[in-house]
Specification:
Blueprint: H1 11-15, H2 17-24, H3 32-48, H4 56-73, H5 81-117, H6 119-144, H7 151-156, H8 159-185, H9 205-208, H10 226-235, H11 245-255, H12 257-276
Helix pairs in contact: 2-8, 3-5, 4-5, 6-8, 6-10, 8-10
């Protein structure tokens, strides 16, 4: 069931639209219990979208017209039975709609909690393997392409090289979709240590940026376009990965262990000095 069937009130689901879109298109799988929860929300929403049994104003107008026609014709006046039955059906519809709204809100909140609970599993078991497969394709493409990938060079290259070049765009689109899904999953759990996100994409970020003054949001040695960036990674031993938040922070602490230990030691010395001199 596509995510576009969810009504506007399901705010949490809309925040995770990119996550479910990739699963709906077959790019990756998701845990069965998560898809079942999403599908249940879709089903509730479809019920809420059902039109009321009848239009109250139109029902009353028809009854008034029937009264007038019967009076003019000298016939028995119509009873309220039909109008009363229509009112009863509409009141039941209103009550059911109120309960459906409550159910949708609760299901939407439960969906958000489930995404949070399953976050590491989604990344580790469902998204990370797809990233690995994509990078295998990028590495294969890198081996088939010439060093110069300008348009003129590609036009003169072999059929294998041209096919590899065209395939990069598809690989990049898939990669961007998986990364967007991961952002959705990690939305409520930002990294505690790797605030800059250095190790959110590259396991060896520090090796590829050695000697450079890397600032938050500043320039990197690789291209910004996704297909070009992935090709650069493949050609420069960039170890692309899809970590959980815990894995990302652990990698940051591992790489910067000496600096972090020195900072902790300095803080301990300052704290001891303050304690000694009151």
């Amino acid at each position: 069931m596509p995510s576009t069937d969810i009504p506007n009130r399901a705010r949490n689901h809309r925040r995770h639209a990119r996550l479910f879109d990739g699963a709906d298109t077959g790019l990756y799988t998701l845990p069965a219990e998560l898809l079942a929860a999403r599908d249940g929300l879709v089903r509730l929403s479809a019920e809420l979208a059902v039109a009321p049994p009848s239009d109250r104003g139109a029902d009353q107008a028809r009854y008034v017209t029937a009264l007038m026609d019967a009076a003019t014709a000298g016939e028995p006046l119509p009873t309220l039975d039909e109008l009363t039955a229509a009112d009863r059906r509409n009141r039941q519809y209103d009550r059911r709609s109120e309960l459906l709204v409550e159910a949708i809100d609760r299901a939407d909140s439960a969906l958000e909690l489930l995404v949070n609970d399953l976050g590491d599993r989604i990344i580790r078991d469902h998204l990370a393997p797809v990233v690995d497969d994509i990078m295998k394709g990028v590495t294969a493409a890198a081996g088939a392409l010439p060093d110069d990938t300008s348009a003129d060079t590609i036009l003169r290259a072999s059929d294998k090289a041209r096919k590899a070049w065209l395939g990069l765009d598809d690989l990049a689109a898939r990669y961007e979709a998986v990364r967007a899904a991961a952002v959705s999953v990690r939305r409520n759990t930002p990294a505690e240590w790797d605030h800059r996100g250095d190790f959110s994409e590259l396991h060896n970020f520090h090796e590829l940026t050695a000697g450079l003054n890397i600032q938050i949001g500043g320039p990197r040695p690789w291209p910004t376009k996704t297909s070009d960036r992935l090709l650069w990674y493949a050609r420069n031993n960039g170890r692309v990965w899809m970590p959980t938040v815990a894995e990302q922070d652990a990698r940051y602490r591992e790489v910067h262990k000496d600096a972090l230990d020195a900072m902790a030691e300095n803080r301990a010395r300052v704290s001891a000095a303050r304690h000694a001199f009151g």
